[in-house]
Design a protein that fits this description.
Blueprint: E1 10-15, E2 18-22, E3 30-33, H1 48-70, E4 75-89, E5 92-107, H2 112-125, E6 135-138, E7 141-145
Parallel strand pairs: 5-6, 5-7
Antiparallel strand pairs: 1-2, 2-3, 4-5
Helix pairs in contact: 1-2
C-alpha cells in the first residue's frame, strides 16, 4: 500500500511584495517576500529562494540524523551551510544549483570512511532533493573530536 501525506501551507498577501506564510499544523507564521534582487523586492525577509534552499538543507539534516542513527554513527556535532544559486537557464529563472556544505564532527573511535558513507547516503536519500531538478552538490568537512559525550 502506498502511503501519502499532505502538508498545508497558506500564504496571505499583506502589502507590496510581502505576504504572511502559515500552516494550521504549525505554531508560528512568518513573512515572505520577493527577494531584493528583483523589482520591488524586500531585503531582510525570507524569500521563496531562501525557502527552497532551506527545504533542501533541512531535509538533508533530518535525513542525516536518521541515517546516522541507523548506522550507529557517533558524532559530536552536525551543521550544514547551503548556498542556493538562482540563475537564468534557457530563458527562465530557476534555482539551478544548491551546494550543501555539511560539517560533521565525529568521535575519535569512528572511521572517516563510515562518516563519508553516512553523509553520501543521506544526500542520496533526501526526499526533497529527489523531488527537484536542481543540481545538489555536497562538499563535506569531517573533523575528529577526542572528547565525545
Amino acid at each position: 500500500m502506498l502511503e501519502s501525506f499532505t502538508y498545508q501551507v497558506n500564504v496571505h498577501w499583506q502589502n507590496g511584495r510581502i505576504g504572511k506564510m502559515s500552516s494550521p499544523e504549525l505554531e508560528h507564521s512568518f513573512s515572505c517576500a520577493t527577494p531584493p534582487e528583483f523589482p520591488e523586492g524586500v531585503p531582510g525577509i525570507w524569500s521563496p529562494e531562501h525557502l527552497f534552499t532551506a527545504a533542501v538543507n533541512s531535509c538533508f539534516m533530518t535525513t542525516f540524523l536518521a541515517v546516522a542513527e541507523n548506522y550507529k554513527l557517533k558524532y559530536e556535532n552536525f551543521s550544514c551551510k547551503a548556498l542556493g544559486r538562482l540563475s537564468r537557464e534557457k530563458g527562465k529563472w530557476m534555482m539551478s544549483e544548491i551546494v550543501l556544505k555539511p560539517e560533521l564532527i565525529i568521535c575519535a573511535e569512528e572511521s572517516e570512511d563510515k562518516a563519508v558513507k553516512v553523509l553520501e547516503k543521506s544526500e542520496k536519500a533526501c526526499l526533497i532533493t529527489n523531488s527537484i531538478h536542481t543540481m545538489v552538490i555536497m562538499e563535506a568537512t569531517i573533523l575528529v573530536s577526542e572528547i565525545c559525550i
